Amino acid sequence: MSMFSIRTSTPRDRDSIRLVEEHAFGQPAEAGLVDALVTGGDAVVELVAEEEGSVVGHILFSRLHVDNGRQRFAAVALAPLAVEPAFHGTGIGGALIREAHLRLKTAGETLSVVVGDPAYYGRFGYQRERARRFESAFQGDAMQALAWGDAPAAGTLVYAAAFGAL
Questions:
Q1: How far apart are CA 123 and CA 135, in angstroms?
Q2: Rounded to two decimals, what is the model's pTM?
Q3: Helix, strand, or coil here: 10?
Q4: What pLDDT score was predicted for residue 166?
Q5: Tens digit of pLDDT for each residue in 60-101?
Q6: From CA 73, how far away is CA 157, in angstroms rounded?
Q7: CB burial of residue 23 (10 Å; 0-12, 13-18, 19+)
Q8: Which terminal Cβ of the chain has fewer Cβ within 10 Å, N or C?
Q9: Beta bridge partners of 159
Q10: DSSP strand pairing (111-115 vs 72-83)
Q11: What confidence score (pLDDT) does residue 45 get?
């Protein structure tokens, strides 16, 4: 059984986060995205899961905007979520999502979007139906949204510039 703790990431975690991302995804693209989002000042909530002093999980929510032609609303994008492969199935990913959601709601955020497995993210309240009316370069069956309050239901999703490199 995994005995992990969750905390806000710090600058000294950068190398460990990069390794977790690369191990989890089997490539450097997501690690590069994390670096670009953090460097660009677009990170809203970034957490790590730590076990015995080692980072074994990571989650990042970055600033996203919803533009409906009249107004621009602040929202967040969950990307990426990564857990070291040896720790898959231990609950670390879910714990990172739940803790980040608590922090986001406390901070007044009202909308989160994710592109990922609907069966997995649906367990945390994300819904495909909630995202259908958004326009996005990432729109598709994996696009899902979760609203905590008075959030826009339609508009164009404007991601941080770092997503343009994907």
A1: 24
A2: 0.96
A3: coil
A4: 66
A5: 999 999 999 889 999 999 999 999 999 999 999 999 999 999
A6: 10
A7: middle
A8: N
A9: 64
A10: parallel
A11: 98
Q: At what angle do helices 29-39 and 14-25 cross, to 10 degrees?
A: 150
Name the 3-class secondary structure at 141.
Answer: coil
Residues in the chain: 166
The pair of three-digit structure tokens given for residue 37, joined into one six-digit string? 């989002």
3-class secondary structure, 76: strand
Q: pLDDT, tens digit, for every residue of 129-148?
A: 999 999 999 999 999 999 99
Give me 69's structure tokens: 């032609």
**pLDDT, tens digit, 9 for 90 and up, residues 103-119:** 999 999 999 999 999 99
Rounded to the nearest integer, the mean pLDDT of the chain is 96
DSSP 8-state class, residue 150 = S
Tokens of 39: 């460097």
Farthest CA pair distance, the chain: 51
Q: H helices of the chain, where?
A: 14-25, 29-39, 92-106, 118-121, 128-131
CA distance readout (Å), 151 to 12, 113, 130, 145, 148: 35, 12, 11, 10, 7
CA angle at residue 80 from 84 to 51, to 5 degrees?
Answer: 30
Predicted local confidence at residue 77, as pLDDT: 98
In order of their start, the domains of the chain are 5-165 (3.40.630.30)
